[in-house]
## 1
Amino acid sequence: MSIKAVVFDAYGTLYDIQSVAEVTEDAFPGYGEIITQVWRIKQLEYTWLRSLMQRYQDFAVVTRDSLAYTLRVLGLDYEKDAFERVIEKYLHLDLYPDATAALIALRPRKLAILSNGSPDMLNALVRNTKLDRLLDATISVDAKRIFKPSPAAYQLIGEELGTAPDEVLFVSSNPWDVAGGKSFGLNVAWIERVTPEAMALACVETELVAPLTMFKAIRTQMDELGFAPDHRVRALSELPGIIQG
Amino acid sequence: MSIKAVVFDAYGTLYDIQSVAEVTEDAFPGYGEIITQVWRIKQLEYTWLRSLMQRYQDFAVVTRDSLAYTLRVLGLDYEKDAFERVIEKYLHLDLYPDATAALIALRPRKLAILSNGSPDMLNALVRNTKLDRLLDATISVDAKRIFKPSPAAYQLIGEELGTAPDEVLFVSSNPWDVAGGKSFGLNVAWIERVTPEAMALACVETELVAPLTMFKAIRTQMDELGFAPDHRVRALSELPGIIQG
């Protein structure tokens, strides 16, 4: 294959969404872990549900709404400040440690992000983590007012970069995003951050489980949606090897 | 309001989806509880994702795929027989104890089901539980090849029953389904089976939680999707009071 562009999912792929856990724990002692998991689960549910309902609101709204839902469900009272401090972290998520080096190694191919994030959220995040110096484009699904895995979202890659689907390597750690990209016709690399062995081992004792284990069980293993990735790697650092190989 | 038809969601509303837990535990000792929760969570995710991907497969396929996913993630090996025994339960789910009496009390209004279920699944379930004697129609989203909460799904009510949206009381225990029905323009009653107080109480200890608690936290509390129900009741038996009141 002749890959002209490598396009990355942002949340969970280049950026560690679990890195909000420290801020949530600080704001809501004893609840950081469960907030982090329920929030992320609901955030994505809301993107899918709003898309299906034809009631699009951008990812900034969905991110706030899903956090408000989470805190209400857990019975937590809070000041506006605590809420804003947690939300603010979404503009300062931690990059995965190998992200910057992987991007550099993939040049001179075109490099871009395709994300559910709103333009404002993405631009701030990319700037705050200095990826703006490396990326050719930061593409938000907001232009189509529908979220991934709608084909309309993946179509933005070609529209923005001038590439055909088979000239693109799309990279995501999110199994549903892998299926969506593959269903659209992109080459897809899946970053498999939780191995099946580690997953099964975490589920040996199932009467009580860590919220993170439930999150992993429902959102980190390859989905049964009829579309498998072309490449399955453990880390971003393996990507240059795929393209050259 | 002048309600001419009362239309029910099936899974979770008239039928107790948690009633699969005995069969899953019997087939996979020690794992019944976590299988039940992960399976249901993924089953709905797959309806939303397939709808968004424009890769519809009917609910029978989605139900099998989500169970296969669940067993794989948990690292469970199994014989075809065990799998089929669990799937078979979906045709014999338990009715909520007050379902039949509530339907009888709501006559002579038109009574129907609008469900994600495939026609074969729904017809078998309704027949097995003797609701076929009470229902005027069992409507499957399959006719539109898209799942709830797409407006196309709720539109089937008017097409099948000849009712205007404001002549219908739609009843669901699923918060996302309540939002979808309301967004479409129906009158909506939400069966709130888990109170906010009980929910918060279950989440006081959050380091380790029961899989059922995680399920409840993400799928039983009213969602932040911008659409609230017209009526909030605790049980199906309260419905006749709403309509007469």
Note: Residues 200 and 217 of chain B are 9 Å apart (CA to CA).
## 2
Amino acid sequence: MRDFLPAEKARRERVLAVIRDRYRAHGFDEIETPVMEDYDRLHAGIGGDNEKLAFTVLKRGLDAEAIVAAAADPAGVDTRALSDLGLRYDLTVPLARFYATHRAELGAVFRSIQMAPVWRAERPQKGRYRQFVQCDIDIIGDATGRAEAELLTASLDTLDALGLEGGSIRINDRRALDWMLDSFGFTAEERPGVLITIDKLDKIGPAGVVTTLRQAQGPDGQAQGPGGGGPGAAAVDAFEKFLLRPQTREYRPYGEGQIRKALPEGAPDAIVAHLVAIGEAVGAARAAAGSESGVSGIPLVFDPFLVRGMGYYTGTIFELAHPSVDYSLGGGGRYDGMIGRFLGQDVPAVGFSIGFERIVDLLESTEDATASAIVLVHDRDLPVAELVAVKAALVAGGARVRLEQRPKNLKALLERAAADGYTSFASVGAGQTAGDLQIKPLD
Amino acid sequence: MRDFLPAEKARRERVLAVIRDRYRAHGFDEIETPVMEDYDRLHAGIGGDNEKLAFTVLKRGLDAEAIVAAAADPAGVDTRALSDLGLRYDLTVPLARFYATHRAELGAVFRSIQMAPVWRAERPQKGRYRQFVQCDIDIIGDATGRAEAELLTASLDTLDALGLEGGSIRINDRRALDWMLDSFGFTAEERPGVLITIDKLDKIGPAGVVTTLRQAQGPDGQAQGPGGGGPGAAAVDAFEKFLLRPQTREYRPYGEGQIRKALPEGAPDAIVAHLVAIGEAVGAARAAAGSESGVSGIPLVFDPFLVRGMGYYTGTIFELAHPSVDYSLGGGGRYDGMIGRFLGQDVPAVGFSIGFERIVDLLESTEDATASAIVLVHDRDLPVAELVAVKAALVAGGARVRLEQRPKNLKALLERAAADGYTSFASVGAGQTAGDLQIKPLD
């Protein structure tokens, strides 16, 4: 967990303000949920591995008897008996709970923004924090590709506004993955394990994927069924042949021809048409907004091997890439089954999460240079009323003003102020008003 | 704990943005600390009653033995053995810890803004929340009245910017209170109890204060010393005479004459001069900023009976009032001893906290009316690419745009959009571009 000092905090708030402004412009509405959620809701099995990392809040007023009872089971401590609340580990479980609670107060299609911290008890390591901010947008109640088009258009616009032009989005569909694995001969039971392995493609390469799938087989080369080992040898052979075929993975330009080329022959028309329509819509929106890339150069890439880890995805999935870094800057997908877990009635939903912490690290400090920010240096014995009057007049004129009593080392002081975003300085003496000051640039 | 729906969340964010903008203009810098602090720091005795309301986070990986041991003491459960972290219950303890950690990276005078949630395990009741936002500004490292003048000027300017003109600040000094109680004959041991009673003046009235002090005496009318009863009868008599003297409590205009009139005769010059200088500085700043109230009508009121509950105040104390409500909208004071608890070296500090939740409730919804916010109504079968292209063109032109598929009840839909801050609507049909739309006002 980190403290944020002034310069870093200001940078984070500027990035959040840009994201909020752009997503709001695209018709999304910000909501906020409490930091603590019910223990049972956090541990309902939706959050995958993240559930295990949830911080748990001690129930108040527990007596000794209750505490001893919680520790009585030799199978393990009954944390639930000690706690009824926990800190959220993501924003998706709270959103599903929020929607189930407030559905009657929301429109038929609800477009939400959430920008808020989440907590995971990770082991401390570089770039991993126990408290970090997530920025999620979600569209609940729209089963059509219009929702994906709105999500992706808004996210690309936001990246542009942050000065991260040139970003692209890899896209796939879980139904395409399922169909593809079916076509190679994998069974439905083998599918989750195979997807976990394919998800490592970027890390271990195609050969690594095939080896891992082979190693998971039983010694006789036969499939061992769920929990018993890996997938069948024939299916792995078919998959290997497809994976290692001599073809680039850069299926550009995005469109039906390239999507069909990227998949085994005979891909279902409905899935392909869905992916094509999303691309056309994003392209049309980019062109209408005057983006230079236009329809022909839309920043979408179809990736038939994109998996995305979470178990709850049911359709389109996407991942945000930028040429400056080799890790993803965000991602998301369609999760039509999850809201139903809380509401008791299925509602379609699709979400996109920007990797806020990664993007903040990537962006250079971009202090708002348009505003005038003045360091007002004064002597110790200048009457307070005179001093604050000069300051107040400058503030009323639109400036940001920091008072500094003249130190021995003025240079160090001004350097610190520049790091905090101040752009100029002036000395104020007895009898001077704001109009008398000589304001000089800091540089 | 509450969910915030779009309209309420937008209102909260607008208020926060105004506060941030004004305090930054006055030279304060925003910082952020983690939501969880070390258990021992939260329970160091600084937070008064709020400490007892802190939420405690369960230590991870506790085994049954450790849990049973925590419950073994008949005197009570050892919460500390179950926990090493807790949720902050205020922003002052984290600020003191932050300053002690980062002092070398901060200027000689550090002006901080903190706007963040805190948690208290209050019993749920109207207007009391278990998670609520505090907005604190603090100046650390300036022992002079310049700090008070900056705090109060910035806070009054912020209130003005929020549309809460007409606010006023009641001011007193703990040293004036101490001197006054001394002069009536209360002992230093009796003082804390007497201050707690005086703090109830607004609730129970002068007669109630005197009765309470009398009831705390022993049956012989003699002082019973610390812990044994109330203050001495002679001191209570002297205080009663002063408290009930026939004089208004509205000591205006603010200045030396009125401050001396409000106190018993012979008040120490240094304390009076300190209070007078703060008033002159705030008045000069208000006049220089062009406030209509000017120097003669500065919104300060000296209140010799203002106490402010927290035990850590050492000098000036203040409370923010507004004519529209009979409760305080914020307050603060000087706490020169507290930073030393963490740093091992005394550093002067003074802070002011705006009652964010109260102010949000007070302000009417003030959606930013300058931006164009358009509901774009479309038929179900309009091609997605056409639709999102029209939306993108409007967004690129500076509007905020929400798509809505034409419902049976268009009126209800438009009313909901108006509540969310949308100002106009248009229908879009096949073949239309953004330029073809007839945009009509929502009202």
Note: Residues 13 and 167 of chain A are 22 Å apart (CA to CA).
